Amino acid sequence: MRYLLAIIPPIAVLFCGKPIQALLNLILTLLFYIPGVIHALIVVHGYYADRRTQKVVDAINKNN
C-alpha cells in the first residue's frame, strides 16, 4: 500500500477503507500533487496506528 501512496495517493486512501477521505484526497491530488500525498500519508499512518492499537487491545483482552 505504501507504494501506491507515492504513485496514486487516492487509491492508497481508498484501500484503508475511507471512501470520503479518498474523494477529498482525489481533489487535493488533482489540484496539487504534494497536498494529496501529505494527506494520504496522514490517513495511511492513522490506519496502521489503529491496527497496531487493536492488536495490543486484543492481546490484553486475551490475557484476562
What does the model show?
Pfam families: Pmp3. With 64 residues, the chain is mainly alpha-helical. The protein has one domain. The chain has four helices and no strands. The radius of gyration is 14 Å and the shape is elongated. The model has no long low-confidence stretch (mean pLDDT 90).
Average pLDDT over all residues:
90
How many structural domains can be distinguished in the coordinates? 1
Q: How far is it from the N-terminal to the C-terminal residue, by CA? A: 34 Å
Q: Number of helix segments? A: 4
Q: What portion of the residues fall into strands of 2 or more residues?
A: under 5%
* Gyration radius over CA: 14 Å
SS-based class: mainly alpha
Number of strands: 0
Biggest sheet, in brief?
Answer: none
Choose one word for the global shape. Answer: elongated
- Helical coverage, percent range: over 70%
What topology emerges from the helices and strands here?
Elements: H1 2-7, H2 9-15, H3 19-31, H4 33-63
Helix pairs in contact: 2-3, 2-4, 3-4
